[in-house]
Amino acid sequence: MVWKELFGRKDKVEQQSPAPNPAQEGESEVSDLVDETVEDELDDESARSGFFTRLKSGLSKTRQGFVGKVEALVKGRGIDDELFEELEEIMIQADVGFPTTMHLVDRLRERVRVENITEGIQMQTMLQEEIVDLLEDNCESLTLLGPPPAAIMVVGVNGAGKTTTIGKLAYRLKSEQATVLLGAGDTFRAAAIDQLQVWADRVGVDIIAHNEGSDPGAVAFDTVAAAKARKSDVLILDTAGRLQTKTNLMAELSKVYRIVTRELGRDPDEILLVVDATTGQNAMSQAKLFSEAVPVSGIILTKLDGTAKGGIILALSHELKLPVKLIGIGEKYTDLQDFDAKEFARALFS
Ligand SMILES: Nc1nc2c(ncn2[C@@H]2O[C@H](COP(=O)(O)OP(=O)(O)O)[C@@H](O)[C@H]2O)c(=O)[nH]1
Ligand SMILES: [Mg+2]
Questions:
Q1: Which residues, in sequence order, are CB contacts of 121 under 8 Å at separation 6+?
Q2: Among residues 8, 159, 310, 348, which one has the fewest Cβ atoms lying within 10 Å of its Cβ?
Q3: Ligand 1 center to residue 194 CA distance, Å?
């Protein structure tokens, strides 16, 4: 996601607003005395390899728990029915889910037949290709088409990683010269408001917050109004971690959505459902239920670094037809990445 391209306002690049200070991570500033073109290329290159290295290390548990097992299975084996069955088992254990496992294994069976493959090891490359295909079928990046303020609503159960992700996203957008306004829509707990405030201070963006227990609809209203008045580029609204079983809380979430839509005069640009990858198949029911309350436009899958069962990403993408737009691979500012199917599969299989 490069918001300035999405907005088509490259002029923003020239207006150097102070970049947020990622002091926590000790990133050094690049000297602007060096030839800019070379610097840009180097930056691009090191940014790319940095991106991949972080992705790879973020996925290390899943690599061991899923791809590592596939590797061990197919090595030195010929292809027979038993091999397919054992492969299915590994995939189910990695949370790929039954329908998606069946889909992938059927594809492999078909290709093994048509392409006359006999060695198990050849099937591993095929699996990687099929995973890329499956993920790309439903791949979309964050879309902030504006007009400003672009609006992002962030929903999901308590503890999924909403507030942290909003902090990371604000950092990222600000680094790309966007002015960002946060809305502390989780009014249920004082700690939730404070937590977003801390992120806003750290990143250096504005925040609209009311007191604990106040109406989240009023926060939504004020956030949109302030974003318009201050001519913010992007507003990001946090929401309470409504348990999907509590109907009244879901109703409240739809109300917040209606208020944002009304005040904006259009749908929010994104309604992102934050899902914790470590919650396994429960992620699927969360996605279904939240989608009934608000028109979820994409998923942010967090804590991929904390699970060996990252296969859930395949289930979410294939079964729900909801694109995974961003992934969280750690707790630092920079541990939020655009989801790229090819890079993801490459990191998993390398
Ligand atoms: N390891 C890891 N932890 C994360 C990630 N995203 C969020 N967390 C942690 O998950 C916990 C809950 O996050 P929070 O943002 O408060 O969730 P919320 O209740 O949905 O707002 C916090 O301790 C975060 O630091 C991630 O991608 N990786
Ligand atoms: Mg929160």
A1: 74, 75, 76, 77
A2: 8
A3: 15
